[in-house]
Specification:
The protein contains 10 helices and 6 strands; from the N terminus they run ααααααααββαββαββ. By secondary structure, it is of the alpha+beta class. The chain has a 6-stranded mixed beta sheet.
Amino acid sequence: MAAYVPVPWVSPLLYGAVLVGGLYYLAVDLGDGPGLVSWRTAGFVAGLAALFAVEAVGRRWSEARVPLLLARFGLTAAVVALDASELSQVLFVLLPFTAYFAFGRTVALALAALCVAGLLTGYLLTAPGWYRDMEYVSDLLMLGIGLVLAISMAAVAVGEQQARRELQEYAARVAELSAATERNRLARDIHDSLGHHLTAISVQLEIASEFRTLDPDAAGRAMTEARHSAKLALGDVRQSVRALRDEAARPSLSAALESWARDGGTGPCVTVEVSGDEDGYSAAELNALYRAAQEGLTNALRHAGASRVSVAVRLTEHGARLALADDGCGFTPDTATAGFGLTGMKERVHLVAGSVDIDSSPGQGTRLTVVVPRGGGER
């Protein structure tokens, strides 16, 4: 298992309490200890100082888990042997506590059993009949309770750290997916808006070039249309910037589509018909319809060579239906390689729980049908 970080204040606090209690026991001469000034007391203080040092080293080099555990075990045993007050026996609870973070529950439970076995062995060797002495029995019970509480506290801390790690990993995955979704959305917007207008500009400039000498008036109208498309492209760029700043206003589908209508002139004839009320439809749903119509019109201008394009949108209380038809060269949808525009259009429509159907065949034109349920997708 991955190593977790022990609660940093528990071990130093317990070391400090044992140090103060042991020195106080010797200072006020509560027992038959060696006195405050002796080699045993010096060893007791040095052992606790070494345990403080081990904790500091462990925070910097947590990967040295086994040597640190062995050092804690040896120093704790030395301090317990040198402590005349016997208060330092409580330090045994730190061994399974710290081991839980580094090695897991199994090792911690094994160390806890080893601590109890070690104390019992000491009683058997040094205090025959200890089980009839309440002081020894109470010490054993207190050690058992301390071990249970220490392991429980370690389990709670490890669980909290594990949950935090999982939450951070989940947040990172969500951020990554959100970034990918936003990149795809921006890619669709750039393709659908700028791609459409640049296609229109390209068509009008080609017409102006061809009719420059044959029909100067037609060339002039084509240049006017090209300038108009350039202004629309600039408007879309500004709208995208406002959207990134959360300043975009709710789009008006009917106004956006009706601006495409034209009676032919230097380009194909485009008729637009919008019926129904937009109220109740989300911005995402209306935008999906608009971008689908825009992609269909762009393809009719760029690839189909259509002379007539009809766009019809019907908005009802249950859903919206877009039908776009052209009289262009058509294609075979099953065998045609879908470009980014069609893929992006389908993605956008599917995000609002809609469907896309393309009916086309060579020489028969193309009919695009998009159905979007009202309130069926993201808001």
